[in-house]
Design brief:
The structure holds 5 protein chains of 5 kinds. Chain A is built from 23 helices and 24 strands. Chain A is α+β, with helices and mostly antiparallel strands. In chain A, the strands form 9 sheets. Chain A has a 5-stranded mixed beta sheet, with helices on one face. Chain A has a 3-stranded antiparallel beta sheet with strand order 4-8-7, covered by helices on one side. Chain A has a 3-stranded antiparallel beta sheet with strand order 13-20-15. In chain A, a hairpin with a 2-residue loop joins strand 7 and strand 8. Chain D is of the alpha/beta class. In chain D, a hairpin with a 2-residue loop joins strand 4 and strand 5. Helix content of chain D is 38%, strand content 19%. Chain D has 16 helices and 12 strands. By secondary structure, chain E is of the alpha/beta class. Chain E has a domain of 59 residues. Chain E contains 11 helices and 12 strands. Chain E starts with 9 loop residues before the first helix and ends in a 30-residue tail after the last strand. The N terminus and C terminus of chain E are likely disordered. Classes of the chains: A alpha+beta, B mainly alpha, C mainly alpha, D alpha/beta, E alpha/beta. Chains in contact: A-B, A-C, B-C, B-D, B-E, C-E, D-E. At the D-E interface, helix 7, helix 8, helix 9, helix 10 and helix 11 of D face helix 6, helix 7, helix 8, helix 10 and helix 11 of E.
Chain lengths: 642, 321, 276, 394, 378
């Protein structure tokens, strides 16, 4: 039941070993990553109010603050004053290249930023300064959102029939329309058995009828162009049908209220037949991308630069969410965070690529209310403490809820917040589900003064649980970015509670592979606690992207992200409800219930949700942040004179 | 000469082969969990896919077999493909090489020219103020770890100047020479200095020591007795003789530049071989690591052979056999 | 002068515990109230933290003091280990004839041809960092340089008439190596040790800086500098860069000066120990 | 007027161990076309003395006068001196292998010498170099001109040095131990060549050597140096057959196979002094058999013995020559000289005692007289003064 | 063509031995006998497997006898092989071929271990008074080395013995704890002598013991060596390039040229009536510290240099430089044989030995254009 996650492609300033950070953050499931990635203040988060998949935002109703007003920084940052101007070259500067340019594998937020310009999906998140809208689902190539009312969704909730806009064109010569068959091919390509298909099929296998079978069959194909081509042209996914050139039909195994959400991911992009001539994301592929968006990749030098030009085949009338204001977009790679910041501040560049404002610069920029900076909620929970419930260490102490509950009091969340830049960039979190995700509702079962921890209470509870002499816990931590700081902070906190934390540094690949996701390691007590993080792959209606992967214990096994082997019938039932129910309120309620249950069982210590500080030059107008890429939407930006 | 080349090439190949064995041995100690890194947490639970990817990469075979496959591929001039970018390792290295070459060559020019010059000037006036200053400079330079120097230069010459509104030195990044020579130069000044200082210090000492020794030699007395000018004695006679060991040392230093380049490239955000090597180490991108380690070893071996040849060119007494 | 500094350093390292007690902060003690600002930025030098605090609110001075411990322990033990190995192997290579020599010399070639920093990172990444491993890695990549020089000197000493004299008296290889060759190596070996110590200290700091050295929260100067550069923190917290950097530079400088004067005193002929 | 007139030349160096008084007031003349032999043991200052003249002792404190063709070499600017060096005063050194630059061809080095002083074309200079090499007896000079020094044999190297010295037809050649590094047969060749060329070009020559044999064959006048001073000067025959100074006498008697030596050699006891701590009075007094009281406190001036023969010794000027009889004369004169004084007597007694303790088994007391003394001249830096040494050396 | 590979033919050697030095092993008089001793240093080249491409024929078939109690002088110019021969005699070098008999026993193939007892009986004194003493050891320990190595004496006894030795050679025994650098060249050479004497050897091979010393000091050491010889009944092999020193100390003198002995004779005979042209030339070239004698003597100036021992001339090795050389000299290697039947102790290896009073002219041949030895890579 895989989900996917992405990397927020942020790289720490001057990161010696910038690449270490990169590697760590690229570790599959999300976020936990980058050191300078940070959360915004409460205000922005509360305003976000949680997105939802449907037109109605059920999540927002549960959020503690309903206000949709934006903070001054965010408003100022958009720079929407004046009317759009066409022309100009947008200069983007960043550090490293995308993970994959092909939508079958592209998984970094940076990749999403770029893909927004030259790929299109059936549905999409609109660019909006209203956080709720920004995570809502709107039609992109599709003409409408399918509902039972408009006949797009069958009565049993299992069949989606989607009509395509007629005038969406590929920039082939001659230009030709994007067809339903192109979308079908896009889904077929997801199953390719090269390692370039990162996490993609997971969201579709088991959801769309026949997808699993298709992928299994595809897996046996020899990985070369001809065999792939033959396979894809001769085999079909039974649950995806091109009814005609402009109609596509999906049949699902079970009703899935979040299916439109899933279709907003770039994995669901249309693919022109030309792509059959290349292995997915091969070097040749990268030189021959074909665009149906407002821009196309005119030149690309791996690791060094991109040049994007306006796509002549693209029509504004065909695209409800994108624009084509710019005459060119140049991406230059290499400089690190500090240099990027300097260049944009100096006006020689306009926008960040994979970096953010250096954490240390934020307070000053914020103090001077610099209009070029904006701080945006990530809707993540990052990092947090996870317990290995199976650990035999300390006499299996961690399997006891009372012990874990005691430890919930130990953590000084303010201190961890400071590591990530303090209240400007993150907000303490006391439940599993962060804002912007379905089921979010603020509550706190383990209150401590100022969220700063209560060692005394922890100690007494621990003693009451039968461990007056404390515990000794093994804590694998990654060596990049802020991970060591977080580990050290936890170590200091737990020490005050009489718990000795023995940390040991591990490779990024081992952190999950050898420890968190390896049931054998868990059973042997190779680790007791760990501090991973989680960035949902989409927001709003996303039980499939938060609660299910983290706490559905029914699928526990190698590679599971229910790292601690938490398994609770109540939670499992709630997850099933949330995945299948078409009633947003019911989904929201089920998720909140699950959240309460997990927190009661203290399977998890939430720390905070983060925000990201972004920066652009003063030439940049209409800079609207997309939560999915944690960057400005380049298809909406326009530049003022010069 | 030819015999010499053949012999040295063969022993060099032996060294390189041993190194490749050692590199493989490391992976033998702790085989990388590449499939996991590649597939991500969720896909990694898909055992079938893991096995598939592992098999694709040939990682399911015993290490000795993998090593054999590697050797066979190597003999076909194929260094393999990165696990991550899927680009040919040669492409990756080809892309990173100009950066490192720019960095290394520039730094080498700086350190050799200034190091030798300072060393010579200090040796011609031993125990003078300038000699003492040169020695102090040399020892101080020697004591600055590359990364500390890099950070300090960045802090003062980039950050502080930047705050003061002066942007003489870009903080980081690399502009290809072909794209904009001036920017290329500007972007590399601080890295060059960073990489050069420690070695420069060494060359000051080396040149000084060699010059002092040579200046005490009988043929320098002969040169003076011939009525030659002091400049000619210093440069034409003394430096010429002192140059032989300096050149030898230079060959060794150039060969081991990669170590310094790793740190410098990290500090200044240059995407050269150093950065590539570190990222591949962290990612356990075995084909890339092996290629870089071998490339570095080849470089050392070739540099050593070149040094020997140069030695013979510089010193007619040496015959290569 | 440099001797005084080194002595001071040793004393500081030895008495780190009472010193930190005196200063009032532990090496891993996080002063969250006054050590960092609300935004998580470290607080500069002042009454509470004489040399400022780090990103977790720990006292920079106290951490510097404990860092000296790591630097000295790693630096000295790695240098001594490297020199011991180097001397033994160099002595054998130089003395025991061409067969032994060609094997050992090739071994040294191999070690010297390694891109050692890269290899060290790879090794530590694979095996997992620890202080003994760090010492071993540094020693492993340093001994060959010493070995090569010792070998050269042994080859020269072997041809000296007093070695011939010993042979003519009937002395065996072992006796000649120990009684006649070794004492001649004491001076250069002493020089190598003093010069290798700063090199090892820098090596240690570099590994820690690259995140593959001493495990946090144990303070080492390299760790501190690594912390300082994370997120460009040093740009707003100069003390965080300056003090560990100064400690590192002054220490290596002191050892270099010491090595230099030891060399001047014992071995006027300069010989390169290291390429880098 | 002599070609070179050196007066009261004093050279000293400051070293970390103290002031090295290498040359202490030496005066001599060299006539045009004549050969002056300078003889002395290591550390006697003979090399420093001549190298100072042509400015090859940088860092030295120099005083005195050295008129070369009327100009004072010691007062010349370095540029003026450079014009003299090589062109008018050439030099030949002891070890021809180390004295030639190993990395340049022999021809290149000669050409460089010529072109440093004469503005002539490279080709002309090269032709001249070949001619010179041919003249000094290098076979196939035209091809050997492009050889490197290491491709020459020892004798050929020294010939090349001689060719280089002669290149600009100098007025004076300073040859510093020109044959010491050579084998006997080669030495004979080289000396022969030098003498022949000197006669041919009428060049003045200063030959510095420790080998009395070389002196006997080459020098017109001889100057004997000891501890930085000229102790005796005379023409060749006078010096060999009628030496006055006990040091000269000792030197001659030490040579195996010399006329003076019988079956048993008669070495000078003790060791030459360190130039840092030169004994008071006559520097030779601690080793002198005929030491008198005044020798310890008073520096003997150069006494005129007879026309051009001078000697720095208080012994009566009429006591000249070698042999038993002369020795007895010297001994009795010395006995008179120290008659009433204790110091010299005590010294003598000490010397005897030393001989007796260390030389019991050995009849030849003289050979062992200096056994207990430590010699500082070789290693000034490492010398450790022992009480014994202080005692014997006063 | 007729010459055997290693010089002297067996028959000739036998003749020579019978005549010059009565058969070795059963002759009480002979302390050390060398029989056709050869020492070649291989020159190896090769890519991987080194093959021998040539040899430096440092010692190329030397036979001689050292009699008890005598001093055998060995003279020759640089590179003639005399030092190599000294090291062969003392078995510091393994022999390429030939036989060495010491005190009646064949020691030419003994292993280092088996050699040890003989080392007590034969010692060396080296040329360089600086290089032959380990600068880092105290002289007491240096002189005590022989005792330590052979386990002869320990502790206070060793110290006493060392101090006795120091006295014997004229050193102050109180200087026991000093380092070699505290001593002058002459004194260091005394230390070397003391070390050589420690085990009361029968034979001392002196390799240029005084050539590094100043004249006045040289005389001291020569006197010391002579005194010790007469007191302790030592046998010396005395190697030097200085003919007058050798003349002074030796009973018999052997002259070496390019790895071979060209002449052996009693001192007076050799210096008075040299039979080999090379000996004559060498003697005539020696400088004489006597202006009148120097003026009248006739010097035979040899042209050219000593050829390389890697590729020595055919036949008589001296022929390219010999004023008397004839055609046969370049073909046939002469044997070392007595010149006059009535003087069996004077042997020379020459086809045309010099007659009494014969004067040599200058060399008829052009100077040889030989490269000097030692420039190759070996």
């Amino acid at each position: 039941m895989p989900l996917l996650s992405r990397r927020t492609g942020v790289i720490s300033t001057l990161a010696i070993l910038a690449m270490i950070a990169a590697a760590c953050s690229s570790s599959p499931k999300s976020p936990s990553v980058s050191s300078s990635n940070s959360g915004t203040g409460t205000s922005s988060v509360s305003s976000a109010g949680g997105g939802s998949s449907g037109p109605t935002s059920s999540a927002s109703s549960t959020s503690s603050a309903q206000s949709s007003s934006l903070t001054p920084e965010q408003l100022a940052n958009v720079n929407a004053s004046g009317s759009p101007v066409t022309g100009g070259t947008l200069k983007i500067v960043g550090n490293a290249d995308v993970d994959h340019l092909d939508t079958v594998g592209g998984y970094y937020t940076t990749t999403y930023t770029l893909e927004r310009a030259f790929t299109r999906q059936l549905f999409a998140n609109p660019a909006s300064t209203d956080p709720a809208k920004a995570i809502s689902v709107v039609p992109d190539v599709a003409t409408d959102l399918p509902t039972k009312a408009n006949g797009g969704l069958s009565a049993d909730g299992k069949t989606y029939t989607i009509h395509l806009r007629p005038d969406v064109m590929w920039n082939t010569s001659p230009a030709r329309p994007v067809t339903a068959q192109d979308f079908v091919l896009g889904f077929k390509r997801l199953c390719n058995p090269t390692q370039n298909s990162v996490g993609a099929p997971g969201y579709y296998e088991g959801v769309i009828v026949g997808m699993t079978e298709y992928c299994d069959a595809f897996a046996k194909v020899k990985p070369d162009v001809a065999d792939f081509k033959t396979f894809m042209t001769t085999h079909d996914i039974s649950g995806i049908k091109a009814v005609d050139n402009s109609t596509i039909q999906f049949t699902l195994v079970n009703p899935a209220s979040d299916f439109p959400n899933i279709l907003t991911l770039p994995f669901g992009s249309a693919a022109p037949v030309e792509y059959l001539n290349y292995l997915p994301d091969s070097a040749e592929f990268r030189q021959h991308t074909i665009s149906d968006g407002p821009y196309y990749i005119a030149s690309y030098t791996a690791g060094q630069s991109y040049t994007l030009k306006p796509n002549p085949a693209w029509k504004q009338s065909s695209d409800p969410i994108r624009h084509q204001y710019l005459s060119e977009i140049d991406v230059t790679l290499g400089p690190d965070e500090a240099a990027v910041q300097q260049q944009i501040a100096a006006g020689t560049a306009d926008m960040e690529w994979d970096t953010t404002v250096p954490t240390a610069d934020v307070p000053q920029l914020k103090a001077t209310k610099d209009p070029r900076m904006g701080i945006y909620a990530n809707y993540d929970t990052n990092p947090f403490e996870i317990f290995n419930l199976q650990s035999p260490n300390n006499g299996g102490a961690l399997s006891k809820a009372a012990v874990r509950q005691a430890l919930e009091y130990a953590v000084d969340k303010t201190a961890i917040g400071k590591i990530y830049g303090g209240p400007n960039l993150n907000t303490p979190l006391n439940q599993v589900i962060p804002p912007g995700n379905v089921g979010y509702k603020e509550f706190n079962l383990y209150q401590t003064p100022n969220d700063a921890g209560d060692p005394a209470k922890c100690k007494s509870l621990l003693a009451a649980a039968g461990y007056p002499n404390g515990l000794t816990l093994k804590d694998p931590y990654r060596t990049s970015g802020k991970h060591p700081d977080v580990y050290q902070s936890i170590q200091a906190d737990f020490a005050k509670c009489g718990v000795k934390v023995e940390g040991f540094p591990v490779k990024a690949s081992d952190f999950y592979g050898k420890y968190l996701s390896d049931p054998k390691a868990a059973k042997q007590g190779a680790w007791d606690i760990a501090e991973p993080g989680w960035v949902p792959d989409w927001y709003g209606n996303n039980a499939r992207a938060v609660m299910e992967p983290l706490f559905d214990g029914r699928h526990y096994g190698p590679g599971s992200t229910d790292w601690g082997d938490y398994n609770n019938d109540t939670v499992n039932k709630d997850i099933d409800t949330a995945l299948t129910s078409t009633d947003p309120a019911e989904v929201d309620k089920a998720m909140h219930e699950a959240d309460m249950q997990v927190m009661k069982d203290a399977a998890f210590i939430p720390f905070q949700t983060q925000s990201t500080p972004l920066f652009h030059s003063s030439r940049v107008h209409n800079a609207i942040e997309l939560p999915s890429s944690i960057n400005y939407d380049i298809t909406n930006v326009w530049l003022s004179g010069s | 000469m030819l015999r010499f080349l053949i012999r040295r090439t063969l022993t060099g190949l032996l060294v390189i082969w041993l190194i490749s064995v050692v590199v493989f041995a490391i992976f033998f100690i702790a085989p990388p969990n590449v499939a996991f890194l590649l597939l991500g947490k969720f896909q990694a639970s898909n055992q079938q896919l893991v096995e598939q990817v592992t098999a694709q990469l040939g990682l399911n075979k015993p290490i000795p077999v993998q090593y054999w496959d590697f050797l066979v591929r190597l003999l076909h001039g194929n260094l393999g493909y990165s696990y991550y970018s899927h680009e040919a390792v040669t492409t990756l290295i080809g892309r990173a090489l100009p950066v490192t070459a720019s960095l290394a060559i520039g730094a080498a020019v700086i350190w050799v020219v200034s190091g030798v010059l300072i060393g010579v000037l200090s040796a011609t006036h031993p125990r003078s103020i300038r000699d003492r200053l040169a020695t102090l400079f040399a020892l101080t330079g020697l004591s600055f770890p590359t990364f500390v120097l890099g950070l300090i230069l960045l802090f003062f010459l980039f950050y502080k100047l930047h705050l003061a509104g002066i942007d003489w030195f870009p903080g980081s990044g690399y502009i290809p020479l072909t794209q904009d020579p001036w920017q290329w130069f500007l972007h590399l000044i601080l890295p060059w200095v960073t990489l050069a200082v420690a070695s420069m210090a060494v060359y000051v000492r080396l040149a000084r020591g060699q010059m002092l020794e040579v200046l005490g030699d009988d043929y320098i007395r002969t040169a003076r007795a011939k009525g030659l000018s002091e400049t000619r004695v210093t440069f034409r006679h003394a430096l010429r003789a002192a140059l032989v060991p300096i050149v030898t040392q230079f060959g060794i230093d150039v060969a081991t530049l990669l170590g310094g380049a790793i740190v410098t490239e990290q500090v200044f955000g240059l995407n050269g071989l150093g950065a590539l090597s570190v990222s591949s180490v962290v990612n356990q991108d075995e084909p890339v690591i092996i290629a870089i380690v071998l490339l570095a070893a080849v470089f050392v071996v070739v540099a050593n052979i070149l040094v020997d040849i140069l030695y013979a060119v510089l010193d007619p007494r040496v015959r290569l056999e | 002068m440099c001797g005084v500094f080194i002595l001071f350093l040793v004393l500081v390292a030895v008495f780190a515990d009472p010193l930190s007690h005196l200063i009032g902060w532990g090496p891993t003690q996080q002063d969250r109230a006054t050590g960092t600002t609300a935004d998580g930025l470290p607080v500069g030098p002042g009454r509470i933290h004489l040399l400022g605090a780090d990103q977790l609110g720990r006292d920079v001075l106290v951490r510097l003091i404990y860092g000296a411990r790591v630097s000295l322990v790693v630096g000295v033990s790695a240098a001594v280990a490297a020199v011991l190995i180097g001397v033994i192997i160099g002595l054998c290579a130089g003395f025991l004839g061409p067969a032994v020599d060609s094997v050992l010399a090739r071994l040294m070639d191999v070690v010297l041809a390694f891109p050692f920093l890269l290899f060290a990172i790879a090794l530590v990444t694979v095996v997992g960092p620890s202080e003994p491993l760090e010492i071993a890695v540094i020693a492993f990549f340093s001994w060959a340089a010493v070995g090569r020089i010792v070998r050269g000197q042994t080859l020269a000493i072997r041809e000296r008439e007093y070695v011939e004299a010993a042979r003519s008296l009937g002395a065996g290889n072992l006796r000649i190596m120990v009684v006649d060759v070794l004492p001649n190596l004491i001076a250069p070996v002493l020089v190598y040790v003093t010069l290798l110590i700063p090199i090892s200290i820098v090596f240690e700091a570099t590994l820690s800086f690259l995140g593959v050295g001493i495990i946090p929260p144990t303070p080492s100067w390299g760790n501190m500098l690594d912390d300082a550069q994370q997120g460009g923190l040093y740009q707003v917290a100069w003390w965080f860069l300056t003090f560990p950097a100064a400690a590192l530079v002054l220490t290596t400088l002191a050892f270099n000066l010491l090595g230099d004067s030891v060399r001047d005193a014992l071995d006027p002929r300069t010989e390169r120990l290291f390429a880098k | 007027m002599p070609l070179l007139e050196v007066r009261d030349l004093t050279v000293s160096f400051h070293t970390t161990d103290g002031l090295v008084q290498a040359v202490r007031g030496v005066s001599f003349d060299v006539e045009k076309g004549h050969t002056l032999g300078v003889v002395g043991e290591s550390g006697s200052g003979k090399t420093v003395c001549t190298q100072t003249l042509i400015g090859l002792t940088p860092g030295a404190d120099v005083s005195g006068r050295a008129l070369f063709d009327g100009q004072d070499l010691l007062r010349m600017s370095s540029a003026e001196l450079r014009k003299v060096r090589g062109a008018r005063i050439a030099a030949i050194f002891q070890d021809p292998l180390s004295s030639l630059h190993p990395l340049y061809t022999v021809g290149w080095q000669i050409v460089e010498m010529i072109r440093a002083h004469r503005h002539i074309a490279r080709s002309a200079a090269r032709a001249r170099a070949i001619e010179l090499l041919d003249m000094v007896g290098i076979p196939q000079a035209a091809s050997r001109v492009d050889d490197y020094p290491h491709q020459f044999s020892g004798g050929m190297r020294q010939r090349a040095m001689i060719a280089m010295a002669l290149a600009l037809d100098p007025d004076l050649i300073i040859a510093d131990e020109p044959t010491t590094a050579l084998d006997a047969t080669v030495q004979a060749q080289v000396i022969e060549l030098m003498m022949k060329l000197q006669a041919e070009f009428d060049t003045a020559l200063i030959i510095i050597t420790h080998d009395m044999g070389v002196i006997a064959e080459t020098a017109d006048e001889v100057m004997v140096m000891y501890a930085g001073k000229a102790v005796e000067k005379a023409d060749r025959r006078t010096l060999f057959y009628f030496p006055h100074h006990p040091y000269t006498k000792g030197l001659l008697e030490s040579i195996p196979g010399s006329t003076a030596a019988g079956e048993k050699l008669r070495p000078i006891p003790g060791q030459p002094p360190s130039l840092i701590s030169i004994p008071t009075g006559c520097a030779f007094h601690p080793r002198c058999q005929y030491v008198m009281d005044r020798c310890i406190s008073e520096v003997p001036p150069l006494f005129d013995i007879a026309g051009g023969h001078t000697s720095a010794c208080f012994l009566p000027t009429q006591i000249l020559g070698l042999g038993e009889d002369v020795d007895r004369e010297r001994a009795s004169a010395a006995a008179v000289g120290r008659a009433e004084n204790g110091a010299a007597a005590r010294l003598a007694a000490r010397a005897t005692e030393e001989i007796e303790t260390s030389g019991v088994h050995l009849p030849d007391a003289g050979a062992l007289a200096g056994a207990g003394m430590s010699d500082r001249s070789r290693d000034p830096g490492t010398s450790q003064n022992s009480p014994d040494d202080a005692g014997t050396q006063q | 063509m007729t010459a055997l590979p290693h010089g002297t033919s067996p028959a000739a050697a036998a003749t020579a031995a019978a005549a010059a030095a009565p058969a070795s092993t059963d002759d009480d008089d002979a302390l050390l006998t060398l029989d056709d001793v050869v020492k070649h240093f291989p020159i190896r080249r090769g890519v991987v497997i080194k093959s021998e491409v040539g040899q430096v024929r440092a010692v190329d078939g030397v036979s001689l006898t050292v009699r008890r109690g005598e001093t055998l002088g060995l003279v020759g110019e640089t590179g003639c092989g005399k030092s190599t021969l000294a090291r062969c005699m003392t078995r510091l070098y393994p022999l390429t071929s030939g036989r060495i008999t010491f005190d009646g026993r064949d020691i030419s193939r003994l292993s280092p271990r088996a050699m040890r007892p003989y080392r007590r009986q034969m010692q060396m004194i080296f040329q360089d008074p600086y290089g032959s003493l380990n600068p880092h050891r105290r002289i007491g320990s240096i002189i005590g080395d022989p005792f330590a190595i052979h386990g002869v004496a320990d502790g206070p006894e060793r110290k006493r013995k060392v101090q006795e030795l120091m006295e014997l050679v004229g050193l102050n025994p109180e200087h026991f704890n000093r380092f070699p650098s505290d001593f002058s060249g002459g004194q260091r050479q005394r230390i070397g002598v003391a070390r050589a004497l420690a085990l009361r050897p029968k034979l001392i091979v002196c390799d240029e013991p005084v050539s590094a010393l100043d004249v006045s000091i040289q005389a001291q050491i020569i006197n010391l060596l002579q005194t010790l010889q007469s007191e302790l009944g030592l046998t010396y092999v005395f190697i030097a390039h200085d003919l007058s020193v050798v003349e002074h100390v030796s009973d018999r003198v052997a002259v070496m040229y390019l790895g071979k002995i060209v002449e052996i004779a009693e001192r007076a005979a050799l210096y008075g009536t040299p039979r080999h042209p090379y000996t004559a030339a060498l003697l005539s070239a020696a400088s004489v510290a006597d202006p009148d004698r120097a003026a009248v003597r006739q010097r035979i100036v040899l042209h050219g240099d000593v050829p390389s021992p890697i590729d020595p001339p055919s036949g008589c090795r001296f022929h390219p430089r010999c004023p008397k050389a004839q055609e046969i000299c370049s073909r046939v290697q002469p044997d070392l044989v007595p010149v006059l039947a009535d003087l069996p102790t004077h042997v020379t290896a020459c086809h045309f030995p010099m007659a009494d009073g014969e004067k040599l002219g200058t060399a008829p041949v052009e100077p040889a254009d030989d490269r000097p030895p030692g420039t190759g890579v070996w």
